[in-house]
Design brief:
This protein has 1476 residues and is α+β, with helices and mostly antiparallel strands. Helix content is 37%, strand content 15%. It contains 39 helices and 45 strands. The strands form 13 sheets. Strands 33-34-32-31-38-41-40-44 form an eight-stranded mixed beta sheet, sandwiched between helices. A five-stranded antiparallel beta sheet has the order 29-9-8-28-30, with no helix packed on it. A five-stranded antiparallel beta sheet has the order 18-17-21-11-25. It is elongated, with a radius of gyration of 50 Å.
């Protein structure tokens, strides 16, 4: 800080409150900055977020590879085979399945046992075969796992690698699923009832409405069976004695709505309540009922007529109609109906219907509501014998009685199989049971009929009689016996082929019935591919057989035991999760890592503390400078445009400047009107009055030019580019007439008009000169120099110079080299030449003629031009400043004669503001007010007032770079210079000669490279981008830069095509300079070192991300022992597991080992971050050592960085110069998404995980931007709104330019390579466009490339949607990519439209109204006007502008449904702010 006092000059000022006062610096003292401040808090916040970003982003990229897909996407390369929903990967589940639960019948080893008819070729049998397979299930745990219905699936393989489906439930019988799951519960005795119950008595009313009991009495005893079979009616007490087991159903059947529990002894499910000693709620002391007897209706039958039961309550049974003819049949027919063992048994009376007589006439149809009353009980029949006596009645459906757990019979007299007698009772006849079915001897049995009374073709499983067994007992047994069934056993007879005879692995898989209820699963297809083992992710139980099918010879097979079973350990095991680890995703991840690394290079400077500088302008600061020069290089711009820049250059003269202030106009075109214009401007300066004691000349000059700038800074360039002359109102401002009138009416109103007459005359002359145009040029062969200084040299520090360097016409046949060669102009420099002779010797130029080359050993030949472009003009101006300052009359006689000077470059299209140097000069001084030689230059941003960001279709403002990037880079002093608005600090000693020796780039005739004499250069002349070359040189010298985030210069925006051409030249210069820097300069090792470090960082991260094994990379590399890592990880895994359990997350429920993988990955990246920190610490120590050695004079290490911020600046310069190397990243992203669309690529990431990561990354990304903006705004209050507003507003432009300039980079690379070859091989001057391309060939090519490239992106987006709509892709990958390419198309919509129709002269509104619709449709002018108005308007631009920021929010939310959109958000976040 410093103490100041003000001494008033006694005059009111219009500039500011203190403008009329002299600022005097009394003394300086340093003050410690506060330990805690808002700026430092923002800095700490930024550093913390940067470190988290450095850790989390690579972690997310690896998560893309290692995180399991959602299960529904597993095995997508194979046929549809739904996975189990439960936990199939836990140790307990795997251990349980290690015991085979399915017994598979052996594979036949004889060709006679195989079926070869499953496949044929031209009618001939092939080697493909199949055979019958029996599967027996014995797994009691399935019911506990809620797998109530289990179906079989057969898989086959010939090599244990490729598997296919060869059978499923369609080929299983007696049922398509296992009815029981264990051998114990599967041992069932069953019997199926006939289709029709006993017909009711004639004219009997149905009794079913009153409720009924249907009971099955199971017995082993033959005597009990005979008693039950011969008695017409049985009591409850008799049942208790005769039956070993009972069970049945009760209630109102046939769809009745009456609750079955209304019947005594009947539960809500319609089952008779039975215990060991009770039946239907009544207890019997003699009873000892065993087993479980169940009844299930048979709504369907299989192909063989076997009953397919259905679990349903008795009221929901589907009743049907039966037709019965009571007339006796003829004798012959009767004999044919006799069945041995049954026909001759007396005593079989008619069996009454259910509940006292069936349910006649259920509405005439099987599906009619049951439980309703019959319709008179009888209906006339048709057909058969005596059709009129036939009647139709309602009957219960066919059902199956089964019993399990009956126990073994007791005693010596028992039947070989249990028998069952089906009885019925009703609530009207409680305790009395009658037969439900009747034996028909002389009449035909009833048959089921449909609604029309026609018989239904329903196959019944008739009992077969044993001819060898005769007698009454055997007859009863045959009629009532139950058959033993293994309901846990299935037989498959597939029609699909298993494969060729030979090695065969056959696997039986038990799948859950819920799989077939999945809407996305359409069933198995013959021979569909199946994923290889382990199968426990798809199968509840699995077992297998192996053998050489259908062959006698049985050589050993791998994974096969000696008894022909597949080793269970090969079928069951830990399931390898399906991840997105494919080649496409790996490439995507590596590209993300590369973009992330570029982003880190961009953001890492923000972790440093900025350089301190003097806080405000003090006139005393200028006493440390030799001079200040504002150079305006003109390249044929209109004089009105250049005049505006000259006005600003004079206006920014510092107040009370104690060194000379020069304004230099460098006119390479030698235009007479420019020289006259500058002469008139100097007359205006001379004519401005100055009065001692009232106003000084300097104050009046500053006041006049300050007002002049205010009137001209917002002039539209279109008003100055008129084909004839400047528009009238613009001429009034530019000539200064309005400025003079304003001052005369206000501040200068007290002045005598006579004192202002000379000024008014000079202003009128300037006004007249602006209205006149001339193409006259003067002598191009020699240098033209004109100087102006005030008559009183001490009254004003201002000096004005007109410079026009020699530009003789060169032979178009020769190479425009930077050394003396045939066709090149040169001048001679004697060995004893002095600096004062510089202009004199330059005036004697000659052209070297081939064959007439001069040879003079006493003089050196110097090329008149080593750069014909901007660098040459700047060097000529810098040399002239040094030449002029060294004149005796311009010496100060004090330390200022050896001080450095400021050289500021102002493009003719820009105008400096009056406070330009008031802001700039303090940045070159430290906090104590001493000149800081380590500051190389300062840079302020471009600003175009007339071009709103919404209408800046080709990003002419380029505000993203100048504000956000420079703000971050300023923290380490790494801001890049630009070709305008930059101020350099130039050093040159008095004894330094104007010439220096330089090694030629081409060899002489003797193949040796010699040194030649050239003029000394302050600006590099190796390429067109002098600013980046100067920036690199400053960094290599150890200097840093400063960024001024203020609008200190107002630019005039050129057309969009001119801005695009400027981008192309800049990109071309970057490529050329990169080639020159990395392959042609001696200090390139520092750039190479930075590039190697960057490549090492990228490769290291790629290896870390690409290592998807569960082990840590440090263990695999042998850095740490596995035991050590396990000891470290174990408590972390437990802690994370406890956290997961506490929050109740079920994400890890089915993947418990995933917790360890996540913890291992996080620790691995933390170790990586720690290793990176150690490397940086080592680099810091080495840097400090070199710094100490240099300070102590032990060694000279000026080319080695002496602080960490210096390394950061090297990384920035490496990134900037190597930008074209990474320029293909947008092309990759565009091509990748189009490939996804047309190749139907799909990537299945976890939705919630993607959403969580993207939210965190966006919070960190925008948090760093906000914290950096706040940090900068707290340092300079002016920056707050400007920085934040422009950063948010230019999100669109940053992503837009990324895609638009892609072909520009390719074209620039080609042209830059050509220039580099000319530069390296021939020593050609590449700082300007070759004469053959002066017509703008490269510009037109660039415009054409960008125009059709953007059109291709728009048409490509439309084509992508059309392709997606017609192909109807099932996955979401193509849809997500369609959205991405649409966003890209919206980004380039405005540039494309602008390049096609935005610059053409449109049809007037009046003419458009005169056109008919038919004329308009065929008028290109009308369409051009319509498209321009529809697209190129601020409303649409504002809407699309906010699509960019909105996408960061919308696409993040969309990632919850389409996780691939999260990857697009990441690319937008990286590409949009990592490019320049």
């Amino acid at each position: 800080s410093a103490d100041f006092t003000y001494t008033s000059s006694g005059v009111e000022s219009v500039d500011s409150e203190t403008d009329g006062k002299t600022l005097i610096l009394q003394n300086r003292r340093r003050r410690c900055l506060p330990v805690c401040s808002g700026q430092r808090l923002c800095h700490c916040w930024y550093v913390c977020q940067f470190l988290l970003f450095l850790l989390i982003f690579p972690l997310w990229v690896k998560w893309l590879l290692v995180n399991p897909m959602p299960r529904k996407y597993w095995h997508e390369d194979y046929g549809a085979f739904p996975l189990l929903a439960g936990d199939f990967d836990s140790e307990a589940a795997i251990r349980e399945q290690m015991k085979p639960k399915i017994h598979v019948s052996p594979i036949p080893q004889s060709s006679s046992q195989c079926n070869y008819s499953c496949s044929a070729w031209r009618g001939y049998r092939t080697e493909e075969m199949n055979f019958r397979v029996s599967l027996t299930l014995n797994d009691s745990a399935l019911t506990k796992a809620h797998a109530h219905t289990v179906y079989p699936v057969l898989l086959a393989s010939a090599d244990f690698q490729d598997w296919w489906v060869v059978g499923d439930r369609r080929f299983a019988h007696p049922r398509p699923f296992w009815s029981e799951h264990t051998a114990e519960s599967g041992a069932v005795f069953a019997r199926t009832s006939p289709s029709c119950t006993r017909p009711p008595k004639a004219q009997a009313m149905p009794l079913g409405l009153s409720g009924a009991y249907v009971l099955a009495c199971v017995t082993w005893n033959p005597m009990s069976l005979q008693t039950l079979a011969t008695k017409d009616e049985v009591s409850d007490e008799q049942l208790a004695e005769l039956c070993n087991g009972v069970g049945g159903v009760c209630g109102w059947s046939c769809g009745s709505s009456h609750p079955p529990e209304n019947l005594p002894g009947c539960n809500a499910q319609g089952r008779i309540e039975v215990t060991k000693t009770s039946l239907a709620g009544r207890s019997f002391s003699q009873a000892n009922f065993e087993g479980q007897v169940t009844m299930k209706q048979c709504p369907e039958v299989d192909e063989t007529g076997e009953c397919l039961t259905k679990e349903d309550s008795f009221p929901n049974w589907k009743c049907h109609n039966c037709k019965y003819n009571p007339n006796e049949i003829e004798e012959d027919s009767f004999r044919r109906l006799q069945i041995p063992g049954i026909g001759g048994i007396p005593g079989f009376a008619g069996i009454p219907g259910i509940g006292g007589g069936g349910i006649p006439g259920i509405g005439g149809g099987a599906d009619a509501d049951a439980g309703a009353g019959g319709i008179d009980g009888l209906f006339p029949g048709s057909g058969g014998e005596d059709a009129e006596s036939s009647f139709i009645y309602a009957s219960l459906p066919r059902f199956q009685v089964s019993v399990r757990g009956l126990g073994q019979p007791v005693g010596d007299s028992f039947l070989s199989q249990p028998t069952v007698v089906i009885l019925e009772s009703s609530e009207q006849t409680p305790g009395k049971w009658q037969h439900l079915y009747k034996t028909y001897v002389k009449t035909r049995p009833p048959e089921p009929v449909d609604a029309a009374g026609d018989p239904i073709d329903q196959a019944e499983a008739e009992e077969e009689f044993d001819d060898e067994q005769i007698g009454p007992t055997i007859g009863d047994f045959t009629r009532y016996r139950m058959h033993f069934q293994e309901q846990n056993r299935l037989t498959l007879d597939p029609t699909w082929c298993f494969g060729k005879q030979g090695p065969l692995y056959l696997v039986a898989c038990a799948v859950n019935g819920s799989m077939y209820r999945d809407q996305d699963f359409k069933g198995f297809v013959a021979g569909q591919k199946a994923a290889p083992p382990p199968f426990n992710d798809r199968c509840l139980e699995v077992s297998g057989r192996c053998a050489h099918a259908c062959l006698v010879d049985q050589p050993p097979m791998s994974n096969c035991s000696s008894d022909g079973t597949i080793l269970q350990s090969t079928l069951v095991g830990p399931v390898q999760w399906e991840t997105n680890d494919s080649m496409a995703v790996r490439i995507l991840c590596y590209m993300l890592i590369l973009c992330f690394s570029l982003k880190v290079v961009l953001l890492c400077p923000g972790i440093f503390s900025g350089y301190a500088h003097y806080r405000r302008y003090d006139p005393d600061l200028t006493s440390y400078l030799r001079c200040i020069n504002v150079c305006i290089p003109s390249w044929g711009e209109k004089k009105s445009i250049t005049l505006r820049s000259l006005i600003g250059a004079v206006a920014c003269m510092p107040k009370a400047c104690e060194c000379r202030f020069h304004v230099t106009l460098v006119d390479d075109h030698h235009r007479e009107e420019m020289r006259q214009l500058l002469q008139i401007l100097t007359r205006i300066i001379e004519a401005i009055p100055g009065f001692d004691g009232k106003f000084t000349t300097e104050e009046n000059v500053r006041q006049f030019f300050h007002n002049w700038v205010e009137g001209t800074k917002r002039i539209d360039i279109s008003k100055l580019r008129s084909e004839e002359d400047v528009e009238k109102d613009a001429a009034e401002y530019l000539s200064g007439r309005l400025t003079l009138e304003t001052l005369r009416e206000n501040t200068w109103s007290w002045m005598d008009r006579r004192h202002l007459q000379p000024l008014e005359t000079a202003v009128q002359q300037l006004h007249q000169a602006l209205r006149n145009t001339s193409d006259e040029v003067f002598d191009l062969h020699t240098d033209a120099v004109q100087d102006w200084e005030p008559k009183d040299r001490n009254a004003l520090a201002l000096r004005v110079h007109y410079l026009a360097r020699s530009r003789p016409e060169e032979d178009e046949r020769t190479v425009k080299s930077q050394h003396v060669a045939p066709g090149i102009y040169y001048y001679k420099v004697p060995q004893t030449a002095e600096n004062s002779q510089w202009l004199h010797v330059r005036s004697k130029i000659k052209e070297m003629v081939y064959g007439l080359e001069e040879q003079d050993s006493f003089e050196q030949f110097v090329p008149i031009h080593t750069s014909r472009g901007l660098p040459g003009a700047l060097n000529f101006a810098a040399n002239y400043m040094y030449f002029s300052a060294a004149r005796p009359q311009n010496l100060y006689g004090d330390d200022r004669d050896v001080s450095p000077y400021l050289f500021s470059i102002c493009d003719p299209y820009h105008q400096y503001q009056p406070d330009f140097f008031h802001t700039t000069i303090p940045l070159f001084f430290d906090r104590s007010g001493d000149l800081n030689d380590e500051v190389g230059f300062t840079q302020c941003p471009l600003y175009f007032h007339e071009l709103a960001d919404e209408l800046d279709y080709l990003d002419g403002n380029n505000a993203q770079f100048f504000r956000f990037h420079s703000m971050i880079q300023n923290c380490c002093g790494g801001v890049s210079a630009w070709d305008t608005n930059s101020t350099r600090l130039l050093h040159r000693e008095d004894q330094t000669m104007m010439w220096t020796y330089e090694r030629k780039r081409v060899r002489e005739a003797d193949r040796k490279r010699t040194a030649h004499l050239v003029e000394r250069r302050s600006f590099p002349e190796t390429c067109k981008v002098e600013h980046i070359a100067s920036s690199v040189n400053q960094v290599l010298k150890g200097q840093h830069s400063r960024f001024i985030n203020r609008r200190l210069s107002y630019g005039m925006s050129r057309s969009g095509t001119e801005a695009l051409a400027s981008m192309q030249r800049t990109a071309e210069g970057y490529v050329l300079f990169w080639l020159q820097s990395f392959f042609g300069r001696r200090q390139a090792f520092m750039l190479w070192l930075s590039l190697i470090f960057f490549v090492f960082f990228v490769v290291w991260l790629c290896i870390l991300v690409g290592n998807i094994s569960q082990g840590m990379l440090v263990v695999e590399m042998g850095v740490l022992q596995k035991n050590t890592i396990d000891e470290i990880l174990e408590p972390m895994v437990d802690l994370f597991r406890n956290f997961v359990n506490m929050v109740g997350s079920n994400y890890f429920g089915n993947k418990p080992s995933l917790i360890k993988i996540y913890v291992t990955t996080a620790v691995e990246f933390a170790v990586w971050l720690g290793g990176l920190s150690i490397c940086l610490l080592a680099l810091f120590l080495v840097t400090e050592c070199f710094k100490a050695f240099t300070a102590c004079g032990l060694c000279s290490c000026f080319s080695v960085p002496n602080e960490m911020r210096h390394w950061a600046r090297l990384l920035i310069r490496m990134h900037q110069t190597s930008h074209w190397v990474w320029g293909w990243l947008p092309a990759f992203w565009i091509g990748f998404n189009y490939w996804n669309v047309f190749a139907d690529q799909t990537y299945h990431f976890n939705c919630f995980g993607m959403f969580l990561f993207i939210v965190i990354l966006q919070v960190l990304n925008w948090g760093m931007i906000v914290s950096a903006s706040m940090r900068s705004s707290l340092a300079a209050a002016m920056e707050t709104n400007e920085v934040i507003f422009l950063s948010m507003d230019n999100v669109w432009r940053s992503t837009q330019s990324t895609y638009v300039t892609l072909p520009l980079h390719i074209y620039s690379f080609i042209k830059a390579t050509e220039d580099y070859m000319r530069y390296h091989l021939y020593g050609a001057d590449v700082t300007f466009e070759p004469p053959s391309e002066m017509s703008g060939h490269r510009t037109q090519t660039t415009i054409c490339l960008v125009k059709y490239w953007t059109l291709f992106l728009i048409i490509g987006a439309v084509g992508a949607w059309v392709h997606y709509a017609f192909t109807m892709r099932d996955g979401e990958g193509a849809l997500a990519s369609c959205i991405v390419v649409t966003l890209i198309a919206l980004d380039v919509l405005h540039p494309c439209t602008y390049l096609f129709v935005g610059q053409t002269k449109h049809m007037s509104d009046q003419k458009a109204k005169q056109l008919t619709w038919s004329q308009a449709c065929f008028s290109t002018s009308w369409w051009s006007r319509a498209i321009s108005r529809m697209v190129l308007n601020q409303t649409l631009a504002s809407m699309i502008k906010w699509i960019g920021p909105a996408c960061f929010v919308a696409l993040t939310l969309l990632s919850l449904v389409m996780p691939y959109m999260g990857v697009n958000v990441a690319f937008m976040m990286l590409l949009g702010t990592s490019t320049y």
